[in-house]
Amino acid sequence: MKNQISYSPEVRERAVRLVFEQQKEHKSQWMAIKSIASKIGCTAETLRTWVRRTEIDQGIRGGLSTADRERLKELEQENRELKRANEILRKASAYFAQAELDRRPK
Q1: Is 53 contained in some domain?
Q2: Quick one: the chain helix, strand, coil %, rounded to 5?
Q3: pLDDT tens profile 74-104
Q4: What domain range is 105 assigned to?
Q5: Confidence at residue 81, expressed as pLDDT on a 0 to 100 scale
């Protein structure tokens, strides 16, 4: 099982800011990420993910922003709940319709 280290939002923001500030001093953004990741004690891939997410949120890179992802997740959950409710109502309707047909006329 992987050891998961939780970094505070302040550490994440600072690391991403450092990448943006120092990428001009390196040959590529990846080199800047590797350099800064080793200094703050996270993996380069973790920092790269933070940088990409920030670029998307700022509109620099295409993709779903964090707010859009959260909204999509909420809508998907609501959709699942509505489908479950519709299924329950459909079954109840069928049950009561069958019960009405089985009733003896007076």
Answers
A1: yes
A2: 75, 0, 25
A3: 999 999 999 999 999 999 999 988 888 777 6
A4: 66-106
A5: 98
Average pLDDT of 2-7?
Answer: 78
Indicate if the alpha-carbon torsion angle 60, 44, 67, 70 is positive or negative.
positive
Q: Which among 34, 38, 32 has a CA at the least distance from the CA of 18?
A: 32
Distance between CA 96 and CA 101 in Å, rounded? 9
**Same-domain pairing of 58 and 16:** yes
User: How many domains is the chain built from?
Assistant: 2
Contact status, residue 56 vs residue 62, Cβ threshold 8 Å: yes
The amino acid occupying position 94 is: A
Record the pTM. 0.69
Q: In whole angstroms, what is the distance from residue 11 CA to residue 15 CA?
A: 6
Distant-in-sequence, close-in-space partners of 30: CB < 8 Å, separation ≥ 6? 44, 48
